[in-house]
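FAQ: What does a ligand-bound record look like?

Like this one, built around BES:
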Amino acid sequence: MTDALKLGFGPFTAPAKGVIVVFCDEGLKFGPATRKTLGSVLNQVERAAKVERFTGKKNSALELIVPAGLKAERLIVIGLGKTAELRSKDFLKLGGLATGKLPNSASHATVFAEMPGGGMKTEQAVDLAQGARLRAYAFNRYKTKRKDDEKPPATRVMTIAVGDVAAVRKAYEPRSAISDGVMLARDLVNEPANVLFPEEFARRVGALKKRHVAVEVLDLKAMKKLGMNALLGVGQGSGHESRLVVMRWNGGRAGGPPIAFIGKGVCFDTGGISIKPAASMEDMKGDMAGAACVVGLMHALAARKARVNAVGLIGLVENMPDGHAQRPGDIVKSMSGQTIEIINTDAEGRLVLADVIWYAAQRFKPKFMIDLATLTGAIIVALGQEYAGMFSNNDQLAERLTKAGMETGELVWRMPLAPEYDKMIDSKFADMKNTGGSRWGGAITAAQFIKRFVDDKIPWAHLDIAGTGFDSRQTDINRSWGSGWGVRLLDRLVADHYEK
Ligand code: BES
Ligand code: MN
Ligand code: ZN
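The answer part, i.e. the structure of the complex:
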């Protein structure tokens, strides 16, 4: 549910109406096209900057309404700070800021993608455009009443002025596909659980077929036959049936091994019989953010025709406490053959992942596997909402993810795995138990649990996105609760290392 922002590109010409957005550095210096367009307005800008103590610091802004000498009704100046230090994620933020500064009344905006040294490079302009569009996303599907002054115009046209219009347009196309993936993930996370239960989630993934993604849905019978009792145990207390969805995109060498992405898709997590307290339980409609990211990523890869073979697998369940629900003390046999004693039914995500990861490895023999899951409150205690926790059995994969994180701004921080933590999940009655028993190192014992279902010959990374998958931080490129976190990160990882 994007608030319509029609984004396009054009040359550096003065707009006849609407808002004009320009950039300057810390010395209040503007690029040549910007100077030419502003002309005598530059004097007003300097006076206003003094009054407002605006110095062009990164992400600061100055506004002039009906500046004399411009046809545009409003001029917004955004500070770049020190331009030499700007990287990809910074341009994204600046674009987000440009959208964010537009008043609700504005239906037309022209953004001059120029720095003091001249026009932004193609990739920088594309980052700017993507940030502007991502910021415009809003989830308003269920709002039937909005005050007039809250309403943005029905359509808003934004033109990004650049030097080489054709080049930027071309480079923007795949990026636009990635943004669509991010917004698809956000939509899924924001949807309430009465609407988005496993079957409905699976149905929506079907839309990827239009992009030539093969979509397969495994129902209860199919999963029973495969012996996925760890996953099925989680869903057995719900009125909604569980599902496993397999997505395949073959853009790479025919028959070449795929890379695999696996998502936790708990459509609602009450905790089950080990029920959660009421405070913030509504947030648990977002306990499928890992699955949403995998779907958004598969959309992005297919829509930009990535030259890679990729599979996405999501385990969709609802963790509810009815008379058929799983109990603490129950022992289940996972598809891998390993048995699990359920200590706490609220540690359900790892049970879902155990079977899906095992299945993914058996069936696809992937080059690597990355799973994403809103797995533990403990990772939020450790890292807050800035970084996702990363656990990996492979240094190269971990380093690549770390780098992709620094470029995209979707940051990951590597956490430890070690036999001492693994011991904490040994069980008296079964091969393992589903919690460490203590809250200490809770994100790590969860990762150790998953590791028991990973063939160590396959490079694997587990991303605990409990802190980053949904939040209300109101960042520059996202104002919605569902963040769509991970789509840009993983797309970048693929683009940088795995496309032939
Ligand atoms: N879905 C939760 C983790 C979570 C908490 C995600 C808050 C986002 C925000 C997960 O299923 C869970 O309940 N984990 C427990 C594990 C514990 C019982 C070992 C937790 O973190 O408390
Ligand atoms: Mn839980
Ligand atoms: Zn959960």
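Follow-up question: can I read anything off the structure? Yes, for example: The mean pLDDT is 97.
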